[in-house]
Design brief:
heterodimer; A: seven-stranded antiparallel β-sheet; two-stranded antiparallel ribbon; 9 strands; globular; B: five-stranded antiparallel β-sheet; 4 helices
Amino acid sequence: VADDWVADEERLYRSVRSSEIMRDASGQALRASSQAFADRHQQVSVNRAARCDHDPRSTQKSRSDAVVELIAGEVCAIRTLLRRDDQGREVGLYTIDVRPDPLPDNIAHAVIYADPQFASRSLFKKLQEQLAYMARFVLLPDDEADDA
Amino acid sequence: MPKEAAPKPELINPSIQERLVDPERDGVTPALDRLAALRERAAGWNGYDALAPDRAAIAFAETWLAGLYKQVTAQGAPWLTPHVTSSAEGEVVFEWWNDPRKLTVYCTTEDANFVKVWGPDMVTQMEDGDATSPAARQQLWTWLTGPGSGG
């Protein structure tokens, strides 16, 4: 749909392998690893909850995976990144956005991306950390359910 | 008849095992086991587009982690077991979460890089840099386990 967009209040789901769930040093609190948001093309795939009946199971890639949730408006609020040229001069800002990207078999699909694309991979690594920090578990693998 | 324990995956770097006096009692062994298990990961292991972990990066990461362990224990400091995984590009990734600090280290085939995190703001509460040298490892560990709120 050409005029489609992702509203700030929309919830976004991402499937996370159980191997990407980590615990703090005390062994108590759960958190998504930064690698839960890894993507070789710096386009983080998510599903729009409103387009999949707000059912995180529809995003879960397997029963042993977890699903985390992000709020689109919070993701798009990451707007203060300075963009620099080769000489280190400030030439603008990177903005983080969420774009609908429906697939033939998944109309809920969307992507989180930087505009323009990060020139340095280290910036994308930091974005992964921030997304991991913001993510909230909405579905845990069966064997982790009691630890939530 | 008692069941035999399943064999542990072998480390790529046999020298690492030799350097550890008693690997079975050693605090770094669980992490080295997880590292060795990364060899089983195929492309797409994360359900998206991740590459399989690079075997040479796994070998480098074994050496890097064993070196850090030696540095930490030589000082009598407590060891924190890292979360062990791999990146979409096939690097080995170690993560320590010692609230409010978090440290992520990416190991390629020849070097290591870090991201220090002490809050959710990627501009003001994160820092990155090189983590290859023993001195850099030591500084990162001091930061991770030190007092205060982070940065």
